[in-house]
Amino acid sequence: MPRRFQVTLHGTGFSVPVEGDKPIRGFFTIRRVFANSPEAAERSAIAALEREERFRGLLETTERELGSRDGCKVRLESIGELSWLRWHFSRSSPSFIFFQDDENDG
């Protein structure tokens, strides 16, 4: 029987210019999915993210800025199982939390 999972994903290697500042290099985002196991939940969350127009836009912008999207990666940051109550009565935003990576600034 499928269970409810909250999956935090960490995207790295993206390049999104920000006016007057260093470009964005990555993001964190949360997805909620039904799955039979944590591994299946991770796969489902990443697949859902990859279908989103906003994510595809990040890939396209990165390719324009860097000439390639080969460095773009999405990995599991954390995962947790949610109770029925928390699934239905707590908020979850599909927004992206962007960050700038100072380590890659030459």
List keywords for this structure.
alpha+beta; four-stranded antiparallel sheet; elongated
Concise summary:
The protein has 106 residues and is α+β, with helices and mostly antiparallel strands.
Describe the structure.
The N and C termini lie far apart (50 Å). Strands 3-1-2-4 form a 4-stranded antiparallel sheet. The longest helix has 14 residues, at 38-51. The protein has helices at residues 38-51, 53-66, 84-89, and strands at 3-18, 21-35, 73-81, 96-99. A hairpin with a 2-residue loop joins β1 (3-18) and β2. It contains 3 helices and 4 strands, in the order ββααβαβ. The protein has 106 residues and is an alpha+beta fold.
Q: How many DSSP helices?
A: 3
Helix and strand string, N-terminal first?
Answer: EEHHEHE
Distance between the termini: 50 Å
In spatial order, strands of the major sheet run 3-1-2-4
Task: Give the proportion of residues in helices.
Answer: 25-40%
Q: Which value, in Å, is the CA radius of gyration?
A: 15 Å
Low-confidence stretches: none
Assess the beta-strand content as a share of residues. Answer: 35-45%
What structural class do the secondary elements suggest? alpha+beta
Mean pLDDT: 89
Global shape: elongated
Task: Please give the largest β-sheet.
Answer: 4 strands, antiparallel
Write the SSE topology:
Layout: E1 3-18, E2 21-35, H1 38-51, H2 53-66, E3 73-81, H3 84-89, E4 96-99
Antiparallel strand pairs: 1-2, 1-3, 2-4
